[in-house]
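Write out the bound-state structure for flavin mononucleotide.
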Amino acid sequence: MSIDFHQLVLSRRSIRKFMSQAVSNEDLVLILEAARLAPSGTNRQPWRFVLLTEAPDREKIAGAVIQPFVIEAPAVFVCCIDKGAFTRGLVEQRLSELVDAGAVSREAAGIIYRRKMPDKVEDVVIPGFAYLDLGIAIEHMVLQATALGLGSCWVRLFNPDQVHESLSLSPEMEVVALLPVGYPAETPLPRPRFSSAQILLKAGSTIL
Ligand SMILES: Cc1cc2nc3c(=O)[nH]c(=O)nc-3n(C[C@H](O)[C@H](O)[C@H](O)COP(=O)(O)O)c2cc1C
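---
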């Protein structure tokens, strides 16, 4: 099935009620692949995921979620940022790959090299733009799921520290969001949105 991108965007909804039918491994791999291919600052690719598909595993995070639908979904991606991606050594590796690929000039790379960057993961404070990187990856996943006829919902209303602990994640991981995925058991109408005129600032904009 080929789906026009605008139709895909139009059809996506946050789904909060799922059928119990499992999602195939093939589809879950495609969703992960959509995250893997997302763009990120300096190609750092700081996203990491835990995928919970077995009921006892989803149950492990039950105490951390507020909305029960999250763990009722047959698959839940726990979306994390790896602090290690922001250490100097790894940033330099990513940069030299970009220079070798001709994507970034040596001059531009030099500007990044000269920035203050921690050598050790323990000294990393996750920069704000890391959340942009992870956000793009998650939205890639959401749209891929939609294209496969699956529903999903971004979830931030939960206790990330409790999820971190329940899943015994390593200290360099910061849990940021949950993404439950499954076949929709509801067909919500579009949620309200501002008009184009409300979101396009007047300064110099002439398309509307
Ligand atoms: C960063 C982010 C966090 C969100 N967190 C939650 C959440 O914790 N629980 C929830 O039910 N929906 C959550 N949502 C879904 C929004 O409520 C939803 O996107 C919005 O109401 C618009 O509805 P739609 O996605 O169906 O168009 C979140 C969405 C985003 C982008």
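---
The longest helix spans residues 128-147.
Strands lie at 47-52, 75-82, 151-152, 173-182.
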